[in-house]
Design a protein that fits this description.
The protein is α/β, with parallel strands linked by helices. The protein folds into 2 domains: 352 residues, NADP-dependent oxidoreductase domain (TIM Barrel, Alpha-Beta Barrel); 118 residues. 52% of the residues lie in helices and 13% in strands. Strand 1 and strand 2 form a beta hairpin. Helix 2 crosses helix 3, helix 11 packs antiparallel against helix 13 and helix 15 crosses helix 16. The longest helix is centred in the C-terminal third of the chain and has 43 residues. The two termini are 48 Å apart. The model has no long low-confidence stretch (mean pLDDT 94).
Length: 503
């Protein structure tokens, strides 16, 4: 299949005149103001197929994925959907800008890396970070990854290949106590080396251009993990015969405006200002997921509150759960004939109440609680109950005990969730009010999530905001908002006002 072209992407924009489209920096390509972010999409999920089809048919023409998203299944989804729509003549390949990334070794990539090491063929300049996670930007690895991505995407050419979070190098260097000046020089040497290889890939026709995706682009210049766009640009500019460094990607949202405001580039420019001056395409990720060390994750979307219980009532729910945990554990242990180690494990997996009593009011927020509930407590409880079923077999008495226990789990967890839901709903309402006050154009949005997106794509220099549109309903909301965009303006004063009132 061919690659995206200037004329075809312009034709796509012309075919959807009500939808906001933008120039992708100096690439010559025209892209929708919102792109389809593929972080959590999977070829095995039919709803994700439907959502991506709806987005492409609706005029969204930039797709952002990565080799490590769902262990390659994100790229497979893109290949399947784009191939299907292109073959049917509904969305020509040349109208769609496909962006993918390379750098991570997780899942299958990590397994392959271990096999290579056992065979004495480890990837050069490999960063071994933690169990199950490595990182590499060496040309040999990039060549391998481009081949694999092309196969999964069912493409002959990737429009844009981004180096994915090279800042992992800083962690690796600190663990080895590398002197700061040496680490800094080596970091940018590796990026420059990767760029030189990617120029060869452009010449081969396997990629159309390249860029860099970094969470640390917007940080203050004195932050130990900071990635300087000015220095990255110098590495590209130093390449003989010109370069195809065309795009950068980074996080930005209402509560993380560093890209708009931090004077971290030469002459006191912000990241966005320098990118705009250099003619770089700018892709923004995490527009709706604000992160902070104090707050954790805050989802920037309207949240309907529920009436929370009083602290006394909540603690009573937890106390009832604790009694049930102890009673259930005692009864089951007597009747199961378990080994001491097995009994202890079952008891530990069923024991949520003691942790809740101590920590229920110390969490970072609703998303933190949802993570603990869904990724820690409930899987452990269900694993213990499944083990009991398998060991003892079904019986009316057992079913009654388990049913009552699960009811108390639901009540206690629901009470904790209601407390954090109310607090989060109030915080989000304040964010929306403050953002609306910062710029009248933003206040016209029909919801907080739409306001969060409008604030970004109404700021000049932003090419495309990447939105996780895994469900058709999400796609519909984004498409609707793209028909009512605010005119792109610098809006620095609006971002300053917002930062001043949100802290």
């Amino acid at each position: 299949m061919p690659r995206a072209t200037t004329s075809a992407t312009a034709a796509l924009a012309a075919a959807h005149p009500a939808l906001a489209h933008r120039a992708l920096g100096a690439t010559g390509l025209t892209v929708s103001a919102a792109g389809f972010g593929c972080y959590r999409v999977d070829v095995e999920v039919e709803e994700h197929h439907t959502a991506l089809e709806k987005a492409l048919l609706g005029g969204v023409n930039l797709i952002d994925t990565s080799a490590n998203y769902t262990d390659g299944n994100s790229e497979r989804l893109v290949g399947a959907v784009l191939g299907r729509l292109s073959q049917a003549g509904l969305v020509p390949r040349q109208q769609v800008v496909v962006v993918t990334k390379a750098g991570y070794l997780q899942g299958q990539n990590h397994q392959q890396s271990q096999a290579r090491k056992e065979a004495g063929q480890a990837w050069p300049e490999l960063l071994e970070l933690e169990p199950g996670l490595e990182h590499c930007l060496h040309p040999d690895f990039l060549a391998d990854q481009i081949s694999r991505s092309l196969e999964r995407l069912q493409l002959d050419c990737i429009d844009l290949l981004l180096l994915h979070n090279p800042e992992y190098f800083w962690q690796w260097a600190r663990e080895r106590q590398m002197p700061e000046a040496e680490a800094r020089a080596e970091y940018y040497r590796r990026i420059g080396q990767a760029f030189a290889h990617l120029e060869q890939e452009v010449a081969r026709g396997r990629i159309g251009g390249y860029g860099l995706s970094s969470n640390t682009f917007p940080l203050p210049a004195d932050h130990p993990d900071f990635t300087s766009l000015a220095e990255v640009w110098q590495r590209a500019a130093a390449l003989a015969g010109g370069h195809h460094f065309q795009v950068i990607e980074f996080p930005c949202n209402l509560l993380e405006p560093g890209a708009m405001l931090n004077p971290n580039q030469p002459g006191g420019q912000s990241l966005l200002e320098l990118a705009r001056d250099l003619g770089l395409g700018v892709l923004i990720n995490r527009p709706l997921n604000a992160m902070s060390p104090e707050r954790g994750l805050l989802r920037l979307a309207d949240l309907e509150p529920v009436e929370p219980p009083t602290p006394e009532a909540l603690l009573d729910h937890i106390a009832q759960l604790r009694v049930s945990e102890e009673d259930l554990t005692a009864k089951l242990q007597l009747g199961l004939g378990l080994e001491p180690g097995q009994s202890q494990q079952v008891a530990a997996y069923l024991s949520a109440a003691p942790t809740l009593v101590e920590h229920w009011n110390q969490l970072q927020g609703l998303e933190h609680w949802r993570h603990l509930e869904g990724e820690y407590f409930l899987p452990r409880i269900h694993a213990a109950l499944q083990f009991i079923h398998q060991t003892k077999g079904p019986s009316p008495e057992l079913e009654g005990l388990i049913s009552r226990h699960l009811s108390l789990v639901s009540q206690a967890f629901g009470a904790v969730g209601a407390v954090y839901r109310m607090a989060t709903a109030q915080e989000l309402a304040q964010v929306r009010a403050r953002a609306a006050a910062a710029d009248p154009a933003w206040g016209q949005a029909a919801s907080l999530s739409r306001l969060a997106l409008k604030a970004l794509w109404s700021t000049s220099g932003v090419s495309c905001v990447l939105v996780g549109m895994r469900r058709p309903a999400y796609v519909a909301e984004v498409l609707d908002e793209l028909t009512a965009p605010a005119a792109p303006e610098p809006r620095r004063e609006a971002w300053l006002r917002l930062a001043a009132i949100t802290g």
